[in-house]
């Protein structure tokens, strides 16, 4: 029987709940700094969410495919799931106008699909030593490309938003109409930066494999994770200081290592607390989020868009979206500070989904993509 880590479900659920919290503030104009992405260099708590999820994807792969071989049936299932995830991401980009001429091609679900695809195949077709080499090669190779390779039409290698190599390739291969609309000339989930993002997934694969080592004691497994997590954080800090700054938008190698190290700390802590010490009474809210993670992420992105299409008239005669009407009518009046109201709106959204997911969990409704 395959092992299942309750701590991994909890970590996944916490990550997805945080993802929904930061993606759905009551008012985008009033957000507390920790709930925003770093403007460029640096890392806020919000910047940890996506790489944590990719790390968790990797850990899950090591458990789901442990003992399996890379036969045609397994590979086809991996490809099928990757296509479904990618298609869901494209659907969110298209909705509601379905204008293929300007659809954003990269995205969160699209990147998850690619990381899942590559990490799964690497896990099934290589040994652990090879996985470690690929992991290091992705980070070092990306650093070399971004800091040494000249950028056409821009000159020397640089890490500026518009003129770095990744931004150039996004415009060349995808086209400006198909990039992130907020910045237009580059994409935070672009082509080149997917390479170090895959490293986050492979790090999860390696940690998940270690956790299943029955020839090692629980203490050894936990100490290993903390030890190598500390090394990842130290290398990230050193790389940042050496000129390859921690930066989510570029998904720099230092950022990848920084988030991997912190993810290892979180997972080791949850593993010790939940699976080893047995403190499980508090975990259910996170578990119900964790078992339907992709479902809630997709629907939490889709439903607000539908609600934005439904207009409601305010007392002053102004017509606003139904989601704005609900926020202005039932959240804002109870708070004098706009940022508190915005945070309360986001928390309310998370709690509503918690109720829905709880019912689904009790009815054993787990939607698998």
Automatic annotation (TrEMBL):
Domain spans labelled Heparan-alpha-glucosaminide N-acetyltransferase catalytic: 4-147
InterPro entries in the record: HGSNAT_cat
Keyword Transmembrane belongs to the record: yes
Listed transmembrane segments: 48-65, 85-102, 108-126, 133-151, 190-211, 223-243, 255-274, 286-307, 341-361
GO molecular-function terms, A-Z: acyltransferase activity
Domain of life: Bacteria
Keywords associated with the record: Acyltransferase, Membrane, Transferase, Transmembrane, Transmembrane helix
PANTHER family according to UniProt: LD22376P (PTHR31061:SF24)
Protein name stated in the entry: Putative acyltransferase
Originating species: Arcicella rosea
């Amino acid at each position: 029987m395959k092992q299942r880590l309750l701590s991994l479900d909890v970590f996944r659920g916490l990550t997805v709940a945080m993802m929904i919290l930061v993606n759905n503030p009551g008012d985008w104009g009033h957000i507390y700094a920790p709930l925003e992405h770093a403007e460029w260099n640096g890392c806020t708590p919000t910047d940890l969410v996506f790489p944590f999820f990719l790390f968790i994807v990797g850990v899950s792969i090591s458990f789901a495919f442990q003992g399996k071989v890379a036969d045609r049936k397994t590979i086809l299932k991996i490809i099928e799931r990757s296509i479904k995830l990618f298609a869901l991401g494209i659907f969110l980009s298209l909705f509601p106008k379905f204008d293929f001429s300007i659809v954003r091609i990269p995205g969160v679900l699209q990147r998850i699909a690619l990381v899942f695809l590559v990490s799964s195949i690497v896990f099934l077709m290589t040994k652990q030593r090879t996985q470690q080499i690929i992991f290091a090669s992705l980070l070092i190779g990306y650093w070399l490309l971004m800091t040494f390779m000249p950028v056409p039409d821009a000159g020397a290698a640089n890490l500026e938003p518009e003129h770095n190599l990744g931004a150039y390739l996004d415009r060349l291969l995808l086209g400006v109409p198909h990039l992130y609309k907020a910045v237009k000339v580059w994409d935070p989930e672009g082509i080149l930066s997917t390479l170090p993002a895959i490293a986050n997934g492979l790090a999860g694969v390696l940690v998940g494999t270690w956790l299943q080592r029955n020839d090692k004691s629980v203490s050894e497994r936990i100490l290993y994770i903390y030890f190598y997590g500390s090394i990842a954080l130290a290398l990230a800090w050193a790389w940042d200081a050496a000129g390859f700054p921690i930066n989510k938008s570029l998904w720099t190698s230092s950022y990848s290592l920084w988030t991997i190290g912190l993810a290892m700390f979180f997972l080791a802590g949850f593993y010790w607390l939940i699976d080893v010490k047995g403190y499980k009474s508090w975990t259910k809210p996170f578990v119900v989020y964790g078992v339907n993670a992709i479902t809630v992420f997709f629907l939490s992105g889709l439903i607000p868009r539908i609600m934005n299409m439904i207009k409601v008239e305010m007392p002053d005669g102004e017509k606003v979206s139904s989601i704005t009407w609900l926020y202005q009518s039932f959240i804002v009046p109870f708070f004098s500070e706009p940022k508190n109201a915005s945070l309360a709106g986001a928390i309310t959204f998370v709690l509503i989904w918690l109720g829905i997911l709880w019912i689904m969990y009790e009815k054993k409704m787990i939607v698998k993509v």
